[in-house]
Design goal:
single chain; about 550 residues; alpha+beta; FAD/NAD(P)-binding domain; D-Amino Acid Oxidase, Chain A, domain 2; Alpha-Beta Plaits; about 25% strand; globular
Length: about 550
């Protein structure tokens, strides 16, 4: 069947903070130049914000630049961060430490990033941007000369057998003079672009964390609006990077989250269960006792920073936001950097197609970003995250040295290695016994997935593809005790046995997938390939 073709000046993949900022900035540039610029945005979630999950505390620097009158326009920034606490947790105690300057949140806001994206989408549409939620970008289109021509959406209504069903709808080709990719962390098209154009050649591999978050409505007596709490230490051991956050929003709501670096060594570790254990700590439990859990979600985070910033431009397209890795790990913030990257990408793309050639490369974008305050920020903090590969205490000591003495000007740069290379054989690591959930403060994964409102059309091809179906048992189970059963925060992967307890096999419950991408990152054999499912599938976060 013939694909429908729609033509635009700019197509943007992903309606997160970077994509929406790029769309708005592109329209602003068109107005400044008295030129009509057509901008189309596709979003795989069922609505803008459906797949958006972040802590989130926002530094407004980029928002101030993009929309200076955001307060008058009623942007959903309601709760000013007023109090910071930084804790070191043991199993029974909470020791208050001096808050690192990077984590000083004076002047920042505690927000729902999903709600901010919905508001940004309203601003973009008011400028004439066309936004199409529920449409997944499934493939990159190329010109004959190899430059990017646009993207194709996924077919709808294809059955598990790969054949069109009764509700089949063919894909649509969206053709553009410039295509901007803002897929978020470990985007499937972005991963392919890295391979096609060698975007990561000569650079450190990207490194990641898995972030898990719950939103609670707490007892008013426990609610302290504007309070920001971060912790390190328990329940993780000192060899594993990670920590927690508690952010007190408006309306008696508290966001609690836990991040584990995906460079952890012990295959028995379960990030979801570590998160549940965190809530039982004596300093944290009282906040949630008597409260009600509203939502749950998870997503991967780019943690590579400066060392891993790829080549950002290629003929016909650009990378932005988390897909390019602009999270400032010591700050635990990436919204402002993502937004600024989108603004700079729009400026570079506008200049590229204003020259009159479709598929031109916006070569000035990477230089502009590295010389902007985003680049300066990331370069200054470049050594802090990799220092924790030495362990918690050496990492904290080195971070203090970098922050207070060297001030980000060390004449060296610490290196990263790929996260999937870090797992040790299960036999060489201690098992971890996790307590059963109590159903009031701690919960099992499937109960949590229900809160994420995750859903996929059941009769579609599985979007979690195995390169070799024998590897999960022959390698992952044999050597690492099938870690995919534990690093997945949604219970997608299970090892099942026959009635005699023999003949193990891997079952993939793709219906549960919350699109976090941890499997694509952490699988020790890199045998799992995450591709986009039908548009509109996945989680539906209301206000995460």
């Amino acid at each position: 069947m013939q694909h429908e073709i729609m033509e635009y000046d700019v197509v943007i993949v992903g309606a997160g903070p970077s994509g929406l900022s790029a769309a708005i900035r592109m329209k602003q540039l068109g107005r400044e130049a008295d030129r009509e610029v057509s901008v189309c945005m596709v979003e795989k979630g069922s609505e803008v914000g459906a797949h958006i999950l972040s802590g989130a505390v926002i530094e407004t620097r980029a928002l101030d630049e993009l929309i200076p009158d955001w307060k008058k326009l009623d942007a959903p920034l309601r709760t000013l961060a007023e109090k910071d606490r930084f804790l070191f947790l043991t199993k029974t105690r909470a020791l208050r430490l001096s808050t690192p300057p990077q984590m000083n949140n004076h002047g920042n806001y505690i927000i729902s990033l999903g709600n901010l994206c919905r508001w940004l989408a309203q601003q973009a549409e008011a400028l004439g941007v066309e936004i199409y939620p529920g449409f997944a970008a499934a493939r990159v289109l190329f010109h004959d000369d190899g430059s990017v021509r646009g993207i194709g959406t996924g077919n709808m209504g294809v059955g598990k057998d790969g054949e069109p069903g009764a509700n089949y709808q063919p894909s649509v080709d969206l053709v553009a003079r410039q295509t901007l990719f803002a897929e978020g962390c470990r985007g499937s098209l972005t991963k392919g672009l890295f391979e096609t154009f060698g975007l990561g050649d000569g650079l450190d591999p990207q490194t990641y964390g898995i972030g898990l978050k719950e939103l609670w409505e707490v007892n008013p007596a426990q609610h302290k609006p504007g309070t920001v709490v971060h912790s390190v230490g328990w329940p993780l051991d000192t060899r594993t990077y990670g920590g927690s956050f508690l952010y007190h929003l408006e309306d008696n709501q508290v966001a609690v989250g836990f991040v584990v670096g995906l460079d952890y060594e012990n295959p028995h570790l379960n990030p979801y269960e570590e998160f549940q254990r965190l809530k039982t700590h004596p300093a944290i439990r009282p906040v949630f006792e008597g409260g009600r859990r509203i939502s749950y979600g998870a997503r991967a985070l780019n943690e590579g920073g400066w060392q891993s910033i790829p080549k950002l431009s290629f003929p016909g397209g650009l990378l932005m936001g988390d897909g390019a890795g602009f999270l400032n790990v010591p700050k635990i913030k990436g919204i402002h950097t993502a937004m600024k990257s989108g603004m700079l990408a729009a400026e570079a793309a506008f200049a590229a197609f204003a020259g009159g050639k479709d598929g031109a490369e916006a070569k000035g974008y990477r230089k502009a970003l590295r010389e902007s305050w985003v680049g300066l920020e990331l370069r200054r903090e470049r050594n802090i995250r990799p220092a924790f590969r030495w362990g918690l205490w050496p990492g904290m000591i080195y971070s203090a040295l970098e922050t207070y003495v060297l001030r980000g000007c060390a004449p060296w740069t610490l290196r990263h290695r790929a996260d999937h290379e870090s797992l040790k054989p299960a036999a060489k690591c201690p098992p971890i016994n996790y307590p059963s959930p109590d159903g009031a403060l701690t919960f099992d994964r499937l109960t949590s997935v229900q809160l994420s409102n995750t859903n996929h059309e059941e009769n579609q091809p599985v979007h979690l593809r195995l390169k070799d179906k024998g590897v999960p048992v022959a390698v992952n189970l044999a050597f690492y005790d099938a870690p995919e059963q534990r690093y997945c925060p949604a219970g997608v992967y299970e090892i099942l046995y026959d009635e005699e307890g023999a003949l193990p096999r891997l079952q993939i419950n793709a219906q549960n997938c919350v699109h976090c991408k941890a499997c694509d990152i952490k699988d020790p054999t890199q045998n799992i390939n995450w591709v986009v499912p039908e548009g509109g599938g996945g989680p539906n976060y209301p206000n995460m």
